[in-house]
Amino acid sequence: MPETTEQPVRRGRGRPPMRSRQEQMNLLLDAAAEAVGGGNFANVTMDAIARTAGISKKTVYLLVQSKEALLSQLVARDLSTLELLLESGIDCAQDLLSELRMYLTLWARLTLSPLALGLYLMAAQGRESAPGIARIWYQEGAERCLSLLRGWLGKAAGKGLLVQEDVEPAVELIDALLICQPLKLFTLGVQRCWSDEQIGQRVDVVLEMFGRCFIHPQHHS
Length: 221
Description:
The chain has 221 residues and is an all-alpha fold. It is built from nine helices and no strands.
C-alpha cells in the first residue's frame, strides 16, 4: 500500500477559546491592581480596566457590579494569603514571636505595596466623593488585619503568654510602629516605597518592643 503522509490540521478562524469565569475575574483583578498600583487614578475606571484585561465592558459587569465591588475583591485576594497565617498552635513565647514575625512581615509588605498605597491615596482623595473606597481600605483592609492580630493575641493570652488586658495596647503599639508611621511618611511625601530590608528592620523593632512590654520574663525561655 502506498505510504500516506499526515496532513497538518487546519484550525478555523473562529472565536478564541472561551475563558472561564474565574480566569476572566483573575484578569480583571490583575488589571485593576496594575491601574491602582501605577498611581494614575484616571486609569482606575471600569472602561480602562476592562481594556487592559482584554474583556468587554458588558462582560465586566456580568462579573462584578461596580468599581468599588472590584476593589473590594482585590483587597480580599491579597488578604487571603495573610489569613492563612496565625493558625498554628503556640505554646511558648518563642513560638509566639516566630509566628508574629511572619504575620507582621507579610502584613507590612501588603500594606506598603504599590497597590495598597495606591488604594490608600484613592481613599484619602475621594473620602467625600467616593466614600466607598475609604470604607474598603479601612474596614476590609486595615481593620481586618488588626482584627486577625487581635484575635490571635487573645488566644495567646488565653494560654498565659501575655495578659488579656494587654492585647489591645499591644495591637495599638504594633499598628503605630509598623503601619501608621510609614503611612504618615508616605502621606507627607517623605518616603514613597519600602524595601524588604527596611520592612524587616521595622519588624525587628516592633518585636523587640512587643517582647519588652508585653511578654513576662518567665515566658521568654
